[in-house]
Automatic annotation (TrEMBL):
EC numbers on record: 2.1.1.192
Species lineage: Bacteria, Pseudomonadati, Aquificota, Aquificia, Aquificales
Keywords: 4Fe-4S, Cytoplasm, Disulfide bond, Iron, Iron-sulfur, Metal-binding, Methyltransferase, rRNA processing, S-adenosyl-L-methionine, Transferase, tRNA processing
Annotated residues for binding of S-adenosyl-L-methionine: G162, E163, S194, S219, L220, N221, N297
Keyword Transmembrane helix: no
Protein's name according to its UniProt entry: Probable dual-specificity RNA methyltransferase RlmN
Entry function: Specifically methylates position 2 of adenine 2503 in 23S rRNA and position 2 of adenine 37 in tRNAs.
Protein's organism: Sulfurihydrogenibium azorense (strain DSM 15241 / OCM 825 / Az-Fu1)
UniProt cross-references to PROSITE patterns, sorted A to Z: RADICAL_SAM (PS51918)
Sequence similarity: Belongs to the radical SAM superfamily. RlmN family.
InterPro entries per the UniProt record, alphabetical: Aldolase_TIM, Methyltransferase_A, RlmN_N, RNA_MTrfase_RlmN, rRNA_lsu_MTrfase_RlmN/Cfr, rSAM, rSAM_sf
Length: 353
């Protein structure tokens, strides 16, 4: 069975032609999948019965089943838990920003990167998500919310479970589908890929002509090398110095900046000295970066604590005093589970009980 959402537009056209249908059928099918967001071939009413029958025999559309969701009473964020065809589960988070909605999608079941502060990585990597499983997180949540203008998801961040650039091909194809004018039609500038800093994959993404240009965020989380390799083992080979060298050279569209994410952990990387070191890392090229400070959200069994607000503000002040654009991201939906991956873990315990 071919899941049609595993095909980018070119592949969908090839599939249509291989079946002896005119090319324009690809546009029609894409409209039903990504604009109307249908769940069955019978809903594709402008296709002939024969075409629908062939599609039913050869293809499938759905890859996710909603197991449960939780909505935050604080800010309305919603965390969705999906079951995949093989029984694995993943999470997606809908974030209600002031003027828009952002969807945080997962790209892997688990993660191999092993960041010390991260809940998702506790069980290691189970598998990469298929393109359809990434795209369906958006399709299913948008269907759940309804089509009204105020419910439209405009932004996608690849910041859920997994390291997106370790699932390069499927992530690339999902971005092609999200941005294609005959598919999801989302704006390139409203999609952000967040990486832990795999240097060769970041380079590859920027050199790849078929990878639609979208924004890049990198998890920095440290102000010097030994701190970073302690928190993020990936930094033992992808060093902070090499990472910053690469980020300083990447070609950026006018007005675009790279986001540096910095999870603030009490007494680990949250001192004023850390902030000053961070300034030194950025200051020569401060116009190409902005910094997101994310106070750590403790989860049961985590080794780390969240810094007091005064420490977070003092850290931020050092950066602003040096004219570095800095924003504090107080985590959304703190009441619906602190860390990404926790809802999944809870449900697994429940299912296996
Ligand atoms: S923070 Fe991201 S890259 Fe690091 S272990 Fe967690 S999911 Fe993987």
């Amino acid at each position: 069975m071919i899941n049609l959402k595993n095909l980018n537009f070119k592949e969908l056209e090839n599939f249509v032609v291989e079946n002896g249908w005119p090319k324009f059928r690809a546009k029609q099918i894409a409209k039903w999948l990504y604009n109307k967001k249908v769940e069955s071939f019978d809903q594709m009413t402008d296709l002939s019965k024969e075409i629908r029958q062939t599609l039913k025999e050869k293809c499938e559309i759905n890859s996710l089943k909603l197991l449960t969701y939780q909505q935050s009473k604080i800010d309305g964020s919603i965390k969705f838990l999906w079951q995949l065809k093989d029984g694995n589960t993943i999470e997606t988070v809908l974030i209600n920003e002031k003027n828009h909605k952002t969807l945080c999608v997962s790209t892997q079941v688990g993660c191999a990167v092993g960041c010390k502060f991260c809940y998702t990585t506790k069980d290691g990597l189970i598998r990469n998500l298929e393109t359809a499983e990434i795209v369906d997180q958006y399709i299913n949540v948008q269907r759940f919310l309804g089509d009204e203008e105020e419910n439209r998801i405009s932004n996608i961040v690849y910041m859920g479970m997994g390291e997106p650039l370790a699932n390069y091909d499927n992530v690339k194809k999902s971005v092609q589908i999200f941005t294609h004018p005959d598919m999801c039609k989302l704006s390139h500038r409203k999609i952000t890929i967040s990486s832990s800093g795999i240097l060769h994959q970041i380079k590859r993404m920027f050199e790849d002509k078929d990878f639609p240009q979208v924004k890049l965020a990198v998890s920095l989380n440290a102000s010097h090398q030994s701190q970073r390799s302690y928190l993020m083992p990936i930094s033992q080979t992808n060093t902070l110095e090499d990472l910053m060298d690469l980020l300083r050279k990447l070609p950026l569209k006018p007005g675009w900046r790279i986001t540096l994410e910095y999870v603030l952990i009490k007494n680990v990387n949250d001192t004023v000295e850390d902030a000053k070191r961070l300034v030194n890392l950025i200051k020569k090229d401060k116009h190409r970066f902005k910094v997101n400070l994310i106070p750590f959200n403790p989860y049961p069994g985590s080794d780390f604590e969240r810094p007091e607000e005064s420490r977070v503000l003092a850290f931020e002040k050092v950066l602003w005093d040096n004219n570095i654009a800095t924003f504090i991201r107080w985590s959304k939906g703190r009441d619906i589970d602190a860390a990404c991956g926790q809802l999944r873990k809870k449900e697994m315990l429940f299912l296996n009980a």
